[in-house]
Amino acid sequence: MMINFILNGQKVVSTAKANERLLDILRTEFACTGVKCGCKEGECGACSVIIDGKLVNSCMVAMGYVESCTVMTIEGYRKTERFAVLDTSYASVSAVQCGFCTPGMVLASECILAKNPNPTEAEIREGISGNLCRCTGYNAIVQAISIAAKEGKGLW
Amino acid sequence: MVNGYQATSLKEALKILAKESVTPYSGGTDLMIDPEEHATFLFLARISEMKNIIEDTEYLRIGAACTFTEIIENELVPEILKEAAAQIAAPAIRNLATIGGNICNGSAKGDSALILFATDAKLRLVSSRGERVLPIAEFYLGRKKTALKSDELLVEILIDRINLSNYYYKKVGARDALAISRVSFAAILNVADGKIVNCMTAFGAVSDIIIRRPDIDAMLVGKTTKEAKVVKKEYIAAYDQAIIPIKGRISAEYRKAVCMNLLRDFLESNGI
Amino acid sequence: MENISGSIKKKDHEAKINGSALYVDDHLMDGMLYGRMLHSAKAKARITKIILPELPEGYLIVDKNDVTGVNRVAIIIHDTPVYAEDTVEYVGEPILMVVGPDDQVVETILHKIVVVYEEKIPVLDMLTSDTVFFDYNYTKGDMDKALAEADRVFIETFQTGYQEQAYLETQGLIAYPQDGRMTVRGSMQCPYYVHSAVANAIGCEGKDVQIIQDVTGGGFGGKEAFPSILACQVAVAAKKANKPVKVIFDRREDMEFTSKRHPSLSTYKVAIKNGEITGMDIDVLFNSGAYTTLSAVVLQRGLICANGVYRIDNLRVGGRAVKTNTVPCGAYRGFGAPQTFFAVEMIMDHIAKEMGLDSLELKEKYMVKQGDSTSTSGKYHFHVPLPEMIQRIDELTDYRAKRKQYQQQIGRYRKGIGLSMFFHGCGFTGSGERDIIKAVAKIRKNPDNTVEILASNADIGQGLKTTFCKIVADTLGISYDRVYIDNPDTDRVPDSGPTVASRSLMTVGGLLQRAAEKLKKEWQEGKEQVIEEHFVEPDFVIPFNLKDFSGDAYPTYSWSVNAIEVEVDTLTATTKILGAWGIFDVGVPIDMNIVMGQMEGGFLQGIGYASMEQMDYNAKGIIRNNSFSDYIIPTAVDVPNLVAEIMNNPYTHGPYGAKGAGELPLVGAAPAYVEAMENALGANLNKVPFTPEDVMKILQGVNT
Ligand SMILES: Cc1cc2nc3c(=O)[nH]c(=O)nc-3n(C[C@H](O)[C@H](O)[C@H](O)COP(=O)(O)OP(=O)(O)OC[C@H]3O[C@@H](n4cnc5c(N)ncnc54)[C@H](O)[C@@H]3O)c2cc1C
Ligand code: FES
Ligand code: FES
Asked: Which ligand is nearest to the CA of C17?
């Protein structure tokens, strides 16, 4: 028996076992290497993906859980208009350093804005609080998200 | 699917559970830390009977498979539980992690479990043989040990519809997000006609099981604030005896001191 | 703001934000095998036997017997074995590697291996160590006289703990043999360090080794020397298997078994006469762990900073880096300086209190200025901007008033504010740059008039690709888009030295600027031209002599003043950081965003070091804080009010006036934080991290 789900807008079928990690399967079977592995314990957020509109740590998800779900990774998200806004805002404040946290951070940014198009700084910080970044000290990322909220009016 | 079943109704899930050797999988945030290689999971997330939050005349009923995000966003949920749920981990974990998993993992560090202890919640456990309702304190048997039978599922959590608005809650973690409790404390105190009608306290993360001592809290019940002040010393001394933190990464002395400080502050904040 | 400081889209931005950047674990190769290390479970033991399970076809074990060159990793001293020989010296020491096509099977095999140890008693506590790896002493003035004539002598010991780099991408490399050569690629800061280590371990000439840096997910010093060790192990495995071998550490392995900041104990004896500080007699002890790795140079820097930013005429500084049966410590942003800056800032504070002064008042009195002599009798050749930084901090935070106001507090919540002042010596310590590294950098102009930068420095997130390209483009007067740089590949780039010591931009950036100036003069449309530049020490430098620690240890210094304001909850002993402010002088910022990113990120790491990042070993020498749930680093909500400001103080000998930036922001956070805690708690404190448990002890002492 296979596991069916929608990955980045496409119907896919996986031969993975139900107890395997979504993170591993996305990286190996579907070549979504933008999904990063920083801990496999739910503690860093580098593996963040969006399942049915919600941010989750893909290392904490067993494949069986995603049956019939919609999964979005950075590989799908980067084709959207919203991504383009975040791309520009992150670039404008150089919020990307080593980049290892970045794909997860961008998806967390999307979920913050999808829930609340005009977030306060505190809400932004709370929204990325599960995404560790050791490089930036977070200020630039927080700024990037609030710039995106302004520049992307109407998109979220 | 191989190594897994996705049930869509409670009946179906219970049938599988009775027949096969499977591990119930709710949000997976405990199970996936170190998943057993050969585990077969029974996925609960699509069982609608376990996803409801409803009120009846007696109880607020919370489906065991409700995620913390769903709990925070629900209007019926009392503030004390919302506040605790909102301090669990971070958004992405709260989107997966469920209240049922927080109880069934049997940990004394469970932040929602603490609130359920403090509110004397009951658990509705169902198997294909039938069902039973157990007070939460009876569900916990020891470190990571619960009364859950292998063919049972926790389906609902039942919270008495008493007034929970006058509460005290404090979680002490290592940082402001993504932190497991080092100590946690929750309490409710209601006064009617000048007398304390109920006082319910619970201490988390200090012992193998969350500490809930209605016998000690009873010292204050039926008393006016003034009368409560008289027994305050005795009350605190009783907790001083009752709280024996187990050894851990964080010293027992520290955790004990915080428990006692919070208990005193709870009393003081209620004029006791 | 200078023109060059205007920010620009980073060269590496696009690939990283859209997820297409390939880090080492993202690479797959035909026939690639996966390796996992068997680490020692004992802190000190003789290995009497290793019982291996039967191996399925295609799986192999790699150990010391497979090392075709020297079974030692070439770091500074060649003492770290590639694979353990008969003994193991710390929990985690690599004994062998299991290699095979399926990662899971490799793991299963690993769990079946039984190592029989004959256990010995390990030395864990650095105070009981009987092996001194490095012992340095230097003096200035006459310390004995100062002590003899003193009317008071303050003595106090300060303690600092481990700090784990906690880069988000764990250590990982791939090695593959090809046409009789060995290639190693992956996550690293210093390709040429890896290059010489691999050649030495597999026993071949340098020309037969190629090292390629892949996009690297953070380093902070943790990928300075450690990749040399891992590279030797992986290269030996690849050679034996004659196939590509990939090793990616998991988080627990990385946290427990890779290098981290040296724990320290520093004892200060300060002589006072007639209310004046007349001398400091300083003894510093660093826990090296089981092997020497970079301890010598880390200790040197720590000792040179031991008197802080203060003019102390009589000085005696001694320090030892000692062996213990614990994980070898190594480089971490700041490189020995955070330890001694913590100690000196705190002792100044404690002395001030004794004298009835505020610590800032005392510090200001002894602060160095341009022209003063350094601890090693070199010279502060350039302007020291500390006074204006203090003034700015005071404007931003109202430091002086708050400091007084917070002295006497009662109630549940108590506030405190603390201040630190410090420098970071830019570049290698002493004559390393001139005598050892001898950096070479090149630029090549292609026939299409694009320009490629050829240097061995790695962009590990700090923005080097962008700043290098900006310097070259601006100097040439061509557009930024026409200048590019790839990740270093030792087959293509000269050895411009490692990516360490806040040197890359100042030193190598300087070479590139010169090369670009030359190219501009010689520019010929449509032709290929290559310009090569070699390091030349600036002529103002007073040559440094390591024997007696004399001369200019650094050509110049980056400066900073930090203030941190806290609020302690006396019921839970937890602390909220109300604000953290840093004023930083790193010369002219080559890119304001990039510099701000360095300052904010480094400052937050420093605050983590001071407050929450705790790591220790147990009685068996096992580090138990080995995951992100047990080793806590700051999240986005922990220090929401972190403010960094740049003070422009051009360095005449740096490219466009730039000097070292990478390490500075981490160096002074700890003393500022602990001073703030003292202010809140009304007690003298002497350790980092200063945790809630420590706070509770103070509160209980105070309350009862
Ligand atoms: C990064 C991270 C941070 C965390 N932070 C916190 C925190 O701050 N506070 C906190 O309390 N917890 C925290 N946790 C722990 C965890 O998220 C919670 O305990 C969560 O509530 C578990 O729920 P789950 O649905 O994910 O459990 P699962 O992993 O699905 O299940 C846990 C256990 O319960 C059993 N089970 C689950 N549901 C049922 C059911 N209905 N009937 C019978 N058995 C069942 C499972 O078989 C399993 O043994 C954290 C975890 C991670 C990874
Ligand atoms: S890899 Fe999933 S949270 Fe770290
Ligand atoms: S940019 Fe390196 S971890 Fe965030």
From this structure: 3
Q: In testing the pocket of ligand 1, which one of B29, B67, B144, B183 has its CB within 8 Å of the most ligand atoms?
A: B29
Chain A residues whose beta carbon lies within 8 Å of the beta carbon of residue C628: 38-39, 41, 43-44, 132
Task: Tell me what ipTM this predicted complex has.
Answer: 0.99
Of B3, B30, B7, give the one whose Cα is nearest residue B18.
B7
pLDDT, tens only, B177-199: 999 999 999 999 999 999 999 99
Q: Which class does domain A3-73 fall in?
A: alpha beta
Fold of B167-269: Enolase-like; domain 1 (3.30.390)
Report CA(A101)–ligand 2 centroid distance (Å): 10
Say which of C412, C638, C692 has its CB closest to residue B254: C692
Q: What is the pTM of this model?
A: 0.98
Q: Per-domain residue ranges for chain B?
A: 48-160, 167-269
pLDDT tens-place string over residues C580-600: 999 999 999 999 999 999 999
pLDDT score recorded for residue C702: 52
Domains assigned to chain C: 24-121+165-257 (3.90.1170.50), 264-429+551-703 (3.30.365.10), 432-534 (3.30.365.10)
Query: pLDDT by residue (tens digit) across C328-369?
Result: 999 999 999 999 999 999 999 999 999 999 999 999 999 999
B30: chain A residues, CB-CB within 8 Å:
none
- Say how many C-beta atoms besides its own lie within 10 A of residue A95's C-beta: 30
How does C361-394 read in b/e, with b if 16+ C-beta sit within 10 Å? ebbeeebbeeeeebbbbbbbbbebbbeebbebbb
A44 → chain C, closest CA residue: C628
Confidence of residue C408 (pLDDT cuts 50, 70, 90): confident
Burial class (CB in 10 A: 0-12, 13-18, 19+), C155: exposed
SS3 at position B5: strand
Report CB contact under 8 Å: C597, A90: no
Domain B48-160 has CATH 3.40.1190.20: no
Q: Which fold has domain A80-151?
A: DNA polymerase; domain 1 (1.10.150)
The structure tokens listed for C458 are 């790695």
- The domain ranges of chain A are 3-73, 80-151
